[in-house]
Every structure is written in structure tokens, then in C-alpha cells.
Sequence to fold (130 residues):
Amino acid sequence: MKTILNIIWLVLSGVWLFLGYCVAGVILCITIIGIPFGIAAFRIAVYALWPFGYTTVERRDAGAASCIGNVLWLVLAGWWLAIGHIVTGIALCITIIGIPFGIANFKMVPLSLLPLGREIVPTDAPFASR
Fold:
């Protein structure tokens, strides 16, 4: 079932969200300071391409650096990526078939706003990072 959902997701919104995160990652990697943010963008890009079967969990070892990084991320790229998820989610919720995919987009908004200090894990092991 995850495979079918991922294929439908890929066609409806996955490719565009993936490309958005990749563009953000390339732009952020231009400077040395932005490389950690670019890596986070590429990590989320893969999650945006195939989200079903994965979830995000909070990393307990994330400290003040991830908090400061999240503030910088929010200013540099987070708002634009969150707006992309919200617009795509609204567009998908117009049809009955697209509602689950729209909800999945809305669930990705917090991750797109504050990605540092979070880890993407398979759904069969959501507590593996603890």
C-alpha cells in the first residue's frame, strides 16, 4: 500500500516538492555557512519525494545549535517551503481522492519550518532514535 501511495504522491506533488527542496539546498550550499542547511534541505527533499512509510521524530541530542539553526532556516528557506506545502495541500484537498495527500502535505509543514533537530525514520521504527 505504501508503494501505491508513494507513486500517486510522486505524480501529484512529490516531484515539485522535491525540486523545490533541491533548489533551496543548492542555493543554501553556495556559502560555507549554509552547507548544513543545504544538507537538511536535501534530506527533506528525499522525504518529500517518498513520504509514505516514513515519519519524523525529535532528536533528544539536539541542542542550542539546532535551535539557532532553525531560526536561520525559518528566515532563509522555511517560509517559502512551508508556503509550497500549504498551496499544494489546498490544491490536493479539492478532490476527494487528493484529501489524504493534502493532509500529508499539511503534516510536512512543521518539518519544513523547523527541520533541524528532527530525524526521518521508517514508520516501523519511530522510536529507534531514542
Q: What stands out?
A: The mean pLDDT is 87.
